[in-house]
Amino acid sequence: MRLSVIGAGYVGLVSGLCLAEKGIEVVCVDVDEARIDAIKRGNCPIYEKGLDELLTRNINKTFEATTDIELAVKTSDVTIIAVGTPFDGNQIDLQYIEQASEQIGRALATKDGYHLVVVKSTVVPGTTENVVLPRIERYSDKKLGVDFGLGMNPEFLREGEAVQDFMFPDRIVLGGYDEKSHKVLADIYAPFQDVDQLFVDIKSAELTKYTANCLLATLISFSNEIANVAASIGVDAREVMHGVHLDKRFTPLLENNHRIYPSFITYLEAGCGFGGSCFPKDVKAFISFASKTENPTKLLDAVIEINEAQPFKVIELVKRHFPSLAGVKTAVLGIAFKPGTNDIRESPSLKITDVLLKEKALVTAYDPVAEAEASVYFSGKVPFAKTLAEALEDTQVVIILTRWEEFGNVPELISHNPDPPLVVDGRRMLDKDSVPKYEGIGL
Length: 443
Ligand code: NAD
Ligand code: UGA
Known about the structure:
Elements: E1 2-6, H1 10-21, E2 25-29, H2 33-40, H3 51-58, E3 63-66, H4 69-74, E4 78-81, H5 95-109, E5 115-119, H6 127-140, E6 148-152, H7 162-167, E7 171-176, H8 179-188, E8 196-200, H9 202-232, H10 237-245, E9 254-255, E10 258-259, H11 279-292, H12 298-309, H13 311-321, E11 329-333, H14 348-358, E12 362-366, H15 371-378, H16 388-392, E13 397-400, H17 410-414, E14 422-425, E15 437-440
Parallel strand pairs: 1-2, 1-4, 2-3, 4-5, 5-6, 7-8, 11-12, 11-13, 13-14, 14-15
Antiparallel strand pairs: 6-7, 9-10
Uridine-5'-diphosphate-glucuronic acid binds next to helix 9.
């Protein structure tokens, strides 16, 4: 079997390389020539643990990259669509899905033999059958169920853990138009025998993806709401969430009769809000979709409202000590929306840094991998320190906004400072007693 993957971004490139690693022949396509050239040279265009090694091992063996979508589709048996699905301010923006579907349709027009088209991008229910399918049929003049099959296979990987999540998924959801489509989907995922594979219909697969992301986002906003209450009555939200998380329904694994407590409380971890290219846009797109079904989404509306307000809690904590931020030397630690990635899309750090700049704080930033991306966003308005130690030199306030492991060294690095800075922990990653002046979300 040979696969073509349309879109060589976080999902397309990771899926393509992981499937190539499993021995399937893969060709990844992107419209971005620079990206494809880099991949061809063996240079990974995104920062993701383990991806470089996969590229080096598989390039020009089971894995290829091209900008020629027609050739890629024609020389493959299955095409996976992994293009972006942003939020346009009102609803999901399907322009890349529409373009890719038309291009696939055109390529299939002159291709012999059965072909399966699989949507992996996150799309609102109905998109695969109402947007992708008609374009393929129109441009190929071929018939669904006879000449080609249709599938929807949502992706659940997390950035920063993408390779691990793809290689060892919790489950694989396979939405198919008919038995034949399901059969080809099963062949693609045959190397993942130890994983639960759910064979469902296409719309159910589409809805499963939104439901998963909306639930996770809801847990975070819930935790932030509780954390804000805890803080205002002098209770530590971390202790509270520890007590809640040890419930067997959240932490089912036992070791010597004790629940195995994770290194941090996943999705009940209060902080400065969720960011990234997915939770914010997916929850908003789903709210918009649900409104078209005439179902109110009061809970999800609140999830977004809480999340949009949460970054300002960090500013409030700084202002307890510095009511005016003008001229206050401030080190912002972490611009990436989470550790393990250089992705800064919708990162709460951007919003917080923008407020600091607006209020005339003297900001220096540091991020171990996202400096290049962040410099483009701030267009020179924020100087970057080259090391954590440099960021901490001669500063009055330190604000931790990304849970990079390296930031665990802050207490040690400021321990010899005769006038130690205020540390505001937007991710609750430090022990509150490890620095002389500490403020944290939910404390
Ligand atoms: P991305 O922006 O990193 O990559 C998309 C790529 O598609 C870009 O490189 C773009 O140039 C390319 N592209 C667009 N139109 C094209 C076309 N017609 N032909 C060829 N290439 C084209 O996006 P992403 O983060 O990989 O997300 C892709 C989809 O997967 C989205 O629907 C997203 O919601 C979903 N998803 C993302 C993640 C994640 O962690 N990033 C996880 C699960 C699901
Ligand atoms: C998320 C989901 O976890 C993936 O399953 C999904 O595939 C993906 O979205 C997607 O559809 O794109 P991702 O956005 O990469 O993955 O990262 P997460 O680890 O889920 O973190 C998202 C945001 O929530 C980050 O800003 C993180 O700091 C924040 N978060 C996470 C919290 O504030 N508290 C938590 O307890 C967990």
